[in-house]
Amino acid sequence: MKNFLKFFVTVFLILSFVSASEISAQEYTAKLEKLKSLADSVTNYYRQNMDVKQGGFYIYINTPDETYLVYSGLNQDITPLSNLRLASITKTFTAASIMKLYDEGLLDIADVITNKIPGTDKSYVPDDENYDLPFKNKITIEMLLGHRAGVFDVTNTAIPDSIKEPYAGITYPMYIMETLKDSLHTFDFDELTGIVAKNKLYYFEPGEGFHYSNTGYHILGKIIERVSGLTYSEFIEKNFFDKLDIKAYSIWKGTDTQIPEPNIQSYFQIDGNSINTTIDNMSPNVADGNIISSPEEISKWMRLLITGKAGVSPKSIEKMIQMKPGDKVQNLYGLGLTVNQGLGYGHDGAHNAYLNVLRHNPENGVTVFAACNFWYIKDLYTQGYSLNKFALDAVNIVTGK
To answer: How far, in Å, CA of 343 to CA of 359, rounded?
Structure first.
């Protein structure tokens, strides 16, 4: 009875977003009920077959006429303005920052990172040991945007056992925060890229393949700072959060571990046990995954970005959405954006029990943010596939396909 009442309270609240002239209340409620049934179905699958005890699925859809929010299994009530960790959706802000600077003639994405910043005697990255990266004279800014520079990712890939360092065999942030028990350590770009440079780590020569790399985006973060004269967080706050009236947070301190209220909790699911992972140190992920926002606000961002209204020129957006083959997770990837048929352009995000999909389809004006607040560790890849299917099925309900 309690869940039944919660659902209809949600219906009542969401109906306030929709005028009678746009869609009938009866039609709207029917779609909302179908969406709720869909969310229940995918959540119950994980409850019954994967022994997931905490967490569930939720979705926020914005069309030119209506807005929908449904959720299932979260063990809490949420609103369109409930905050969560966006994880790699952050990369869309980093890519947009680079393209904005490109629009302004302050950098050239075709430049290699050792080139001088236009009009200055300063190189894009410092000429020091922390940026003495393998093949640094061949790495272009554009390659970094598209994960095609071969830059080793110290946050997602374990340092090879062959490296004669105490952090060999695990990721570098894990070594600092867990092995050394310095859980509130504040990482910075220099420290993270310095591990790559010191140990001469790489996946392949620049331009010879695709490999998703958070550390590649740390280099982009450093470039943004050197070109603009602002910190990464200052730049996106000034140029995007403030100008576009988007409520979001760029977290960079190791001690800043909380998510502002109201927030959505997150859970690891391991061997039938649930571990709350909401509190976290995001400083290893500045520029690649540190931003916090809500379904409504981040959907607004993606809609503005893809439609050329976020401060990045339509010409540069065209460059960003030119897709090339990726890997089994990122089938197609452009410059800080991916694409799915039926959903449009955007990015995915995954960080410590938050799993997110954000897309805007310029053909029909529909923006979708689909997410779950748990990780099923045994098969996270399939969970990601389920989330994408959930998003597409939900959009088809709303659009009548």
So the answer is: 6
H/E segment holding residue 347: strand 344-351
Q: For residue 229, what are its two tokens?
A: 């004269």
CA distance 149 to 194: 17
Specify the 3-state DSSP secondary structure of 166: coil
Alpha-carbon gap, residue 137 to 89, rounded angstroms: 29
CATH code of 354's domain: 3.40.710.10
pLDDT (tens digit per residue) in 19-63 = 434 579 999 999 999 999 999 999 999 999 998 999 999 999 999
Q: At what angle do helices 189-199 and 214-228 cross, to 10 degrees?
A: 120
Please give the pLDDT value at position 51: 87
* Angstrom distance (rounded) from CA 251 to CA 112: 29
Distance, CA of 387 to CA of 369 (rounded, Å)? 10
Q: Domain limits at 378?
A: 84-399
Round to whole Å and give the CA distance between 331 and 279. Answer: 31
- Omega within 30 of 0 (cis) for the link into 262: yes
The owner of tokens 């309690």 is 2
3-state SS, residue 64: coil
270 lies in some domain: yes
- Say how many Å lie between the first and final Cα of the chain, rounded: 32
d(CA 226, CA 113): 12
Structure tokens at 12: 């009542």
Which of 350, 88, 348 minimizes the C-alpha distance to 218?
Answer: 88
pTM for the model stands at 0.94
37 found inside a domain: no
In a domain, 236, yes or no: yes
- The residue behind tokens 């039609």 is 27
Give the residue from 270, 258, 361 showing the smallest Cα distance to 307: 361
Q: How many CB atoms lie within 10 A of CB 381?
A: 9
Tokens of 138: 């061949």
The one-letter amino acid at 270:
I
Q: How many domains does the chain have?
A: 1
Summarize pLDDT for 209-230 with one digit per residue, the tens: 999 999 999 999 999 999 999 9
Is 290 among the domain residues? yes
Separation of alpha carbons 42 and 18, rounded Å? 27
